[in-house]
Amino acid sequence: MKEDTIAAISTPMGEGGIGIIRISGEESFNIAKKLFYPKSKISFEEMKPRTMYLGNIYDDLEKYVVDEVLMVKFKAPNSYTAEDMVEIHSHGGFTAVRKILNLVLRNGARLAQPGEFTKRAFINGRIDLSQAEAVIDIIRAKTDKALKVAVDQLKGKISEKIKEIMDSLLSVIALVEANIDFPEEEIPEASPDIILKNISYNIERLNYLKEKAGAGKILREGISTVIVGKPNVGKSSLLNSLLMEKRAIVTEIPGTTRDVIEEYINVKGIPIKIIDTAGIRDTKDPVEKIGVERAMEKVEGAELVLFVVDASGELEEEDYKIMENIKEKRLLIIFNKIDLGQKIDEKKVKEHLPGKRVVKISALRDEGIELLREEIYELIVNEVGSLEEGIIITAQRHIEAINKAIESLKEAKITVENNLPMEISAIYIREAWEYLGEITGDSVKEDILDAIFENFCIGK
Ligand SMILES: Nc1nc2c(ncn2[C@@H]2O[C@H](COP(=O)(O)OP(=O)(O)OP(=O)(O)O)[C@@H](O)[C@H]2O)c(=O)[nH]1
Ligand SMILES: [Mg+2]
């Protein structure tokens, strides 16, 4: 089936040095030819692929030069989508790029859907599905480490591992089927022993990938971390210190922060989504009350809580109430305002929050912040394991597919152990193969595809 020709602006909206319009499909060259007039007066056909040419984009109806641009053509299959493609690099900004896109559309292209260029790269077999997904992870990576994991995925490292396992499963399926179809022939026997060995080995390999997935999810999505405490203890000051920026309003008036403030920080490669909240107390002020409710909601959903107390004062009723609410969470206790001397009873705090670590800081003077970052890192790495070596699965979709494949293989194992006919085992093994194929795109359904590419931006 022939695909139509699509076009979109691939750079972000707004002022910039350049803006890029991308065209992909059969008509790309024809459309570009009508609009682009090279300075060097050579014909469109004479232009070499993958080479930039300077020229003008000319509005053929209104008869005027829209912009001076650079144009490059890519001949199929050597392009991002594996189709004929053209990129027009115009001056950035709101008008020129849009105007050129409109010209391209008027001359026969249709506006691309989000992720459609990457989807075509997948459909045309240039990349597999996990590689296509990596593209969006690269765009969204919040730290260097997250970027590295996504680039590994783009290079196909995850698909490689998964395909190895799929091939190994396929070899057993083939063996079983050969034994069923040609029982008389001289082929290796599909003994229960061989099948069991294969299944167990592949379950082990999948479990290994799964174990590392916790770290992957964190690298991809970050850890949502809520700063809580009663009013005026220095929560917003702590947020500002961690961000190294005066992001939140700080005053000596209790109840300053009303709304929830969210920002990302990078703690040794781990993206931390840090959330400042309203100080928690009983209040009659209707606005502050909503703030307190929102703070409590954020604590519910948090993966890490930074509980801030004013170490220069005594524990108060509100502190006890908050501690009661958060004691089950992954948590660090922050003694703030340590520059004023420590008056708080450390033993009492630890009694109420057993097993949790205390970090002493002065948000005002930026003291102890580096130590706090270390503590955050240690806490996370201790629980999810190293983020360093090996292949890391990051996408929830992949984790689910691996889980389902493991379940199917376990079923297969049971059937072999109970001496059921080999055909039955083969059905389960094939099921596992198909689940894994959802990761690479070998056996993926249309609705899953749509859901994946919907996440992309237009022009990618
Ligand atoms: N001495 C000292 N003062 C601090 C420190 N951290 C914050 N403060 C002061 O404490 C006051 C309250 O700070 P905020 O950061 O606004 O406190 P908060 O917890 O966000 O307060 P609410 O938003 O009202 O809940 C301000 O006057 C800060 O300057 C610290 O480490 N030492
Ligand atoms: Mg505040």
Automatic annotation (TrEMBL):
Mg(2+) binds at S236, T257. Keywords: Coiled coil, Cytoplasm, GTP-binding, Hydrolase, Magnesium, Metal-binding, Nucleotide-binding, Potassium, tRNA processing. GTP binds at residues 232-237, 251-257, 276-279. It comes from the Bacteria. SUPFAM superfamilies: P-loop containing nucleoside triphosphate hydrolases (SSF52540), TrmE connector domain (SSF116878). (6S)-5-formyl-5,6,7,8-tetrahydrofolate binds at R22, E87, R126, K460. The keyword Transmembrane helix does not apply. PROSITE patterns: G_TRME (PS51709). The keyword Iron does not apply. Its EC number is 3.6.-.-. Its cofactor is K(+). Residues 392-419 form a coiled coil. Its main location: cytoplasm. It is found in: Cytoplasm. K(+) binds at N232, T251, I253, T256. GO terms for biological process: tRNA methylation; tRNA wobble uridine modification. GO terms for molecular function: GTP binding; GTPase activity; identical protein binding; metal ion binding. Residues 222-381 form the TrmE-type G domain. Binds 1 potassium ion per subunit. GO terms for cellular component: cytosol. It is an enzyme of class 3 (hydrolase). Homodimer. Heterotetramer of two MnmE and two MnmG subunits. Belongs to the TRAFAC class TrmE-Era-EngA-EngB-Septin-like GTPase superfamily. TrmE GTPase family. This is tRNA modification GTPase MnmE. It comes from Thermovenabulum gondwanense.
